[in-house]
Every structure is written in C-alpha cells, then in structure tokens.
Design brief:
The structure is a single chain. This protein is mostly beta strands and 822 residues long. It is built from five helices and 53 strands. A hairpin with a 5-residue loop joins strand 49 and strand 50.
C-alpha cells in the first residue's frame, strides 16, 4: 500500500502462492462499494498440489485502520482449473461495469511452442495442452475467456442477463461473456455505454504461411455485447488458420469465421460456435498496413486502458484531463512502450488513433487507471521480462492547462574540503517544459554576491556548513529551487585501496593481495604513523549473485560504521562506556545484543540526546543536547553493528583467499577512514571500494543494451534474448589484464528464434572486433574468444546479427566465462 501523503509504502499482505511459469497473483481490484464494505478481489494461484490446480477469484476484507488485508476473510467466488504442467497464458484482469457486474479475463492455458507460431490446434491424444480448442473455443471451459458474474454479499454470484450462453444451456458455462481469447491480459469497461475493451497478446509467427495460415498479430478488442472472438481458429480481422493434422504435418481448408466448428476430440463443449468477431485494432511484428506508424513495429504486447469522461471526476480538479479526451479509449503496448488515444464514432466504430505524450518514454506500462481527481495513474513494469526491475514504478500524469514550473537541478564538483574551498556549481539538467527562457540565481553565503549564470563558482574562505541555493525562474515568474550543502573547513581524507592482478574478477581458492593507504590534510597519514591503523575500517564482504544496488548499500553501510565509531571517540561517550567491558555504563556489545534486530528509531536517538535511566541499573545516562540527530543516528548504527562479529576490521594489508562454496557472487573490498573533524566542521569520511565478481557472469547482468530482453528459462535461469539485427549488450569496466579467453554460451530454439552471428567488440558496437561465432537455430553454442594481447579496462560489447530474421528473435545468451592466461 502506497500512501502519497506520507510518501511511504507498506506490505499489507503476503500470499502463499504458486509462482511457476506465469502463475502467481494475476489480478486485483476493489469492490465498487469499497467505502462501505472494504472488499478487495484477487485472482491468484494458490500453492496447492496437482489435485487442486485451480486459479482462485477470491474476495477479501481490507482493514483500513491497520492497513492490512485480512487473509482469513477469504471467500472463493470462482475457480478456474488450469494444468500447471507447463506454460502459458493466465490473463487475470478484473474490471467492473456500472451495474456492479465483475469481469475476469482468463488465458488459454495452452503451450504455443509446438505450433510454429500459428494456431495451436494439436488434436493428437494426450496433447490437449497444445490445443486451444480445448480451452478458448470450448464453450464448457472457463479458460481463454472474459467471464461476467454478479457477486453477492454472501460470497457467491449470479449470472447477469446477456451473457453468451443462458443458464441451463447444455455443454456451455453461463459465466462466459466473451470467448475465443488467447491471453486477454488487461481489460477495461466503458462506464457510460458498457463496452468491454481488452488487449489480446497474439501468436509468434513472423510471416504468413500458405501451409499454416496468417502471421501473428496482437489485438485490441471491443465487445459491445457477448460474443466469440476466434482464437485459435482466427486472428486479427478474422484471418483464418488452415485446418491441420499435426501427426502428418498436413493442412487443408481454412476455418470459416461465419460458421466456426470445434471438432477437436479434446472439446467438451458445443461443436458449433457463434460467428467470429473481427478485432478492433490489430498489428503484427512488422509494420501494420492497416494502422500505420502509430502502432510501430517489433515485439508486441497489446493492453487495454480506460475510456475517459471528464464529467466523471471532481469539477474543481486542477489536474484532470480536459474534455478533448471525452469518450476516448487509451490503448497501450507493454513492449513498444506507447500509449495511443483512440477516437471512436458515435456507434463505437474506430475513427482514428494518435500517440499520447509522444515525447515521453514509458518503461513497459502494465496497468493504468484514472484516479478520483482525473489524473492518470500508470504502473510501469520496467524493461525486462520475469525480472525485478530497478525502474519499476507507479507514475502519475496530471494535466496542466497553464504554464508549468521549471525544473531546478543543481550540482557541484565538491561537497566538502578545507578552506579556502573553491567549488564549481552547475545548473545542468534544469529545464522548462514550455520552452520558456530561464533565469538563474545562486545564493552562496550570507552577505555574499549572488551568481546569475547557469554555471558559477565560489570560494569559501571561512569554515562552516553552507546551504547553497539555486533558484530557476521562467519568463512567467514561475520558479523552483534546489539546495546543495557544502562543508568548508575540513578536507575529506584520501583513502586508496590497491589490489594486485585482475581488478574485475576472482577465481576460487586463489589469493587476492590488497593494501590500504590513507592520508588526511589535518590528521596526517598511515605512512607517517599519525593515523592509527586501528582507526581505518577494512572490510571484505561477500554477496551471492551480482546486485549493483546491494553492493552500493554495502559501501554505505561500511562508511556509516566507520563514521559512527569516530563520532563516539570524539564525544564524551568513552567516559562511561567501552566496546566490550562494562564501565559506569554497559559495554557497547551488551547494548548491541539487547537491541539486536531493532530498527534505528527516533526513540533510540532521543535516548542519547535527552538522556535517561532505568534500563541498565540506577546510573542515569547524561543528556547530549550538543549532538545532532544525524550524528547520533550514525553512532547508534555503529553500536548496533557490534552485535555482528563480521563487522570486525581486517588488517590494512594482506592476502585474502576467495571461497564462495560454489555459489557464484561478488567480493566487496572496502576501506574507509573518518577523520577527527576540524574548524568546528563535523568529521568527514573518505572511502574506496573494489568489487571482484565471479569470472562466470550472467549475460543478463549487462550495463547497457539495445533491442534485447531478459527472459527466465527453466534450467538456465535469466538469459538475454537478442530481438533484432545489430542488437547488443555491453559490460562496463572489464579489466582484461591477465585474461586468456572468454567463452560465451548462447542457445537458439528452433521454434521461436532465427539464429544468427555473435560478435565481441571493444568499447563500442563498432569497435575493435576480437572474436565471433555462429549461433545456429536448434542448438546451444559455446563461442570461445582469445584475449591475449588485450590489457587494461574496456567496455565489452556483444553484438547480435541476423538481417534475415523476419521479425523473429535471434537467440538467447546465457553467460560469459572468463579464464586467466596460462
């Protein structure tokens, strides 16, 4: 739960769910009368076993006071049985109409990978999981559908009038509103006329086939009433697949959209189906001849957003969209990162389509909804499939009918140092979205002349902590500010950590030789022995895997421990406490054990600042009003860290033998020193960190990419899929010193990929070619590239080539294995 007023998030439920393939928590929505009943509906995959593989549509009660979903309040309204033996397609979107009917989308639960990208209609015995006539075109099955029910207060439901099959129809489920769906992933209801919209994620064939039928298309669909939409017999505007015998690999006449017949032996429903409806909007991998450039080309994942009406939102809202968008439908695509606004004729027919915010780069939008204020909220998944993306986010788009405030961005080349301290300031990144001319005003210090240029410099001659303010004003008088804090009067210590040999990788059971050097303008250095080696914190940490975010957090943590230790040494705390022996007050290690696992809170910080007694006996702790809350927080961090023996410092020089016990990861060598402070300026911390990663790295751990996608493959983990010719991945700061070769493992499925060529280049996609290999379809290919004669740090580019792929992905890259020179 995200609270926009507090800017905080909270986990309000932890579901025990089945997460293999595409299963998990697929859909969520609140009851139309949520303010009265606090009901929330989830569509999810319960853990269960093979005896209970049904997806559950369940109602839960939400506790608004404690911000918690009450798991024990669950009422299961509907079960949708699925196979769980392999993939694909779950749907899972939940929506409501104005009459209080609940719509639920379900996927076809059919494996598409043995049908050459065309209609999956394999009628052989035991192949029901490869036949969508068993699900989508089966009137007696809930999969591959959009269901419509009327929930009741007791946790059951009734069937609304107007569903596709009346209650009591033999071999037909009355819950079905729309059938013949492949993967209707996101759906929406026009609250004024009741029209249903959904995005249909389509099949993979890149080209038309005389033998099998039409190439794959994604669809955006509209249903004004209940109906059949064709899958797996038809796609797009009722382009028909050929009837097919999979055992003989033979085909014959096309299916008839006016009289579709489901004669699959797997079918448990009606043989004669309703006439097939054409798609509302549809587009292939390649350019769309029907809808043009507005839908783009390349990978595709169509989804359906809301239909907007200005009158549905607060009349005094200053952020709601204007009446220009009234009655318009928001269609979007997860892969292509666009949102299109669709204008319709009065009867609902397609009229035109235009790009919404064409200069905005979205990051795989996966759901959207207008809030009560008329602003558009968007969930953005981030760029990679089945991955935890750093830029996954909740975005809010407001309409501004007037002039927008400029954006102020301030930076400096230094944040601290001894006096005189000359600092260069820049406003680079500041901008005005309306293109207005900007004025700049820098405030450096009280009484000092102001700067009025985009870049400025100022020399601080007196020790102190200064709040430097950049104010940016546009030609209409709208302004914004940003503040930079500069600490003058104490130079930041210089810390150097030297590592011999290759500075990118470690190899198990081999020594890493390191040495730390420290020099400080005010305190002296390790060399002249004015800095005690015991005051330098040296840590060697190990993290499984390679997570840049965790590594960064590890660096900050080490600095905090060092800073907190020095702040304690410079205070009067040592008069009453020591690290491991009781004095007047308890030893810090005893304090750490007592509060182990406790979060650093305002209460703990206040204890130090305000003083108190009664916790450790009769002796009261003195107050420390002279300490700032920020400094006390660092001191408390250090004390609590003593509960963990791993925080003991390593020597400033030595050999370390790497052992990851078979779990490849990253070693973090970090050194930091916090000085004694100077000229009333608080202590400053200098640090340096080296990371050595396992010499076998996942291809998905790239630093830059073009036209690739991450994808999880069972048995291989996360791989990189090259989507187009000249796509690439890049790996920064690879030290080639002492390396002999790198072996790149790639694989190409003969069903979904085209194969191609892999090139390894230095420093750019067109840089020095150091090796290449052919990746043929239907095989797994290791490409070994010799690295002798290359030294120093370079960016390594893997470039993926196939100009004849015809819209198909090329191949997947699994990992890169670096070997030392012999």
């Amino acid at each position: 739960m995200y609270d926009p007023k507090k800017g905080k998030t909270k986990i309000v439920a932890d579901l025990d769910i089945y997460t293999k393939f595409e299963y998990g928590l697929m859909g969520l929505n609140i009851d139309p009368k949520y303010n009265q009943n606090h009901w929330i509906y989830l569509f999810y995959s319960p853990k269960g076993g093979q005896s209970d593989t049904a997806q559950h549509l369940s109602r839960f009660t939400y506790d608004n006071v404690r911000d918690t979903l009450l798991i024990n309040s669950e009422k299961v309204l509907l079960r949708v049985p699925v196979k769980r033996t392999d993939c694909c397609h779950t749907g899972g979107s939940i929506a409501w109409d104005k009459a209080g009917n609940l719509y639920l989308s379900t996927g076809d639960d059919t494996n598409p990978f043995k049908s050459d990208g065309y209609g999956p209609i394999d009628e052989r015995p035991g192949r029901s999981g490869w036949d969508a006539r068993y699900t989508s075109s089966n009137t007696n099955d809930l999969r591959g559908k959009i269901l419509r029910i009327k929930p009741k207060d007791d946790g059951t439901y009734s069937i609304p009038e107007g569903n596709l099959f009346p209650v009591g129809t033999e071999k037909a489920r009355p819950e079905i509103y729309v059938m013949g769906n492949r993967n209707p992933y996101r759906i929406a209801i026009d609250q004024h006329n009741g029209f249903l919209y959904w995005g249909e994620v389509g099949p993979d064939a890149g080209g038309n086939s005389e033998k099998y039928g039409p190439r794959g298309h994604d669809e955006v669909n509209q249903a004004r009433k209940a109906g059949y939409f064709g899958w797996p017999l038809f796609v797009a505007d009722n382009k028909a697949y050929n009837q097919r015998n999979f055992e003989k690999d033979s085909t014959w006449a096309k299916f008839d959209p006016m009289k579709p017949i489901n004669d699959s032996p797997h079918n448990t429903g009606l043989r004669e189906l309703p006439p097939a409806n054409k798609a509302f909007i549809y587009y292939p991998y390649d350019e769309s001849p029907e809808f043009g450039a507005v839908v783009g080309k390349g990978g595709r994942n169509a989804m359906a957003g809301p239909v907007y009406y200005s009158e549905d939102f607060d009349t005094d809202s200053k952020v709601k969209f204007p009446s220009f968008y009234n009655g318009k439908f928001f269609a979007y695509d997860w892969i292509r990162d666009f949102i299109n606004v669709v204008t319709m004729k009065p009867n609902g027919d397609f009229a035109s389509m235009e790009r919404f915010m064409p200069n905005m780069k979205f990051s795989h939008p996966i759901d959207m909804q207008f809030g009560k204020d008329g602003a558009l909220y968007i969930l953005e998944y981030g760029p990679n499939w089945f991955a935890q993306n750093d830029d996954a986010r909740l975005s809010k788009i407001e309409f501004n009918a007037g002039n927008r405030k400029p954006v102020a961005v301030a930076s400096s080349n230094k944040k601290a140092g001894g006096v005189p301290l000359k600092v260069e300031f820049s406003s680079e990144g500041s901008l005005d979205y309306d293109g207005d001319a900007l004025k700049y005003e820098w405030t450096f210090a009280k009484g000092a002349p102001k700067g009025n240029t985009a870049k400025a410099s100022y020399t601080f001659t007196k020790p102190g902590v200064y709040q430097v303010i950049l104010k940016v004003t546009d030609s209409y008088g709208n302004s914004n500010k940003e503040i930079i804090e500069i600490k003058a009067g104490n130079e930041i210590p210089k810390v150097e950590m030297a590592i011999k040999g290759n500075k990118s990788f470690y190899w198990n059971d081999e020594k890493v030789n390191y040495e730390v050097k420290v020099a400080d303008k005010e305190d002296g250095s390790l060399i002249n022995k004015k800095i005690n080696p015991e005051d330098v914190l040296v840590s060697i940490d190990y993290l499984e895997g390679f997570d840049k975010t965790l590594i960064a957090q590890g660096h900050q943590a080490n600095t905090s421990f060092s800073n907190g230790k020095r702040l304690i040494e410079l205070s009067d705390c040592k008069s009453c406490h020591s690290v491991d022996k009781k004095s007047i007050g308890p030893a810090y290690k005893e304090v750490a054990k007592k509060y182990k696992g406790v979060a650093i809170s305002t209460k703990l910080v206040d204890k130090v600042i305000k003083g108190g007694g009664g916790v450790w006996g009769e002796q009261a702790m003195a107050a420390h009003p002279q300490l700032s809350a920020d400094d006390v927080k660092e001191m408390v961090k250090y004390i609590l860290s003593l509960a963990d023996d791993k925080q003991q410092s390593k020597p400033i020089k030595g050999d370390f033998v790497t052992k990851d016990n078979g779990k490849a990861g990253t070693y973090i060598f970090s050194a930091s020193y916090t000085d004694k402070g100077s000229n009333s300026i608080p202590p400053q911390t200098g640090q340096e960190t080296f990371t050595l990663r396992n010499a076998t790295i996942k291809a998905s751990d790239f630093d830059n990419q073009n036209e690739t996608m991450k994808f999880k493959v069972e048995g291989l983990g996360e791989v990189v899929v090259a989507m187009t010719d000249k796509s690439f991945t890049a790996y920064n700061n690879i030290d080639f010193t002492g390396l002999g070769s790198v072996t790149i493992l790639a694989t190409a499925s003969d069903q979904r990929t085209a194969g191609g060529k892999l090139e390894a280049r230095l420093d750019s996609p067109t840089g020095q070619l150091i090796g290449s290999g052919e990746i043929s379809a239907g095989s797994t290919n290791p490409t070994k590239i010799q690295l002798s004669g290359i030294s120093g740090f370079h960016r390594l580019y893997l470039v993926y080539l196939n100009a004849e792929s015809k819209g198909k992905p090329l191949f997947a890259v699994v990992n890169l294995k670096f070997e030392k020179a012999k």
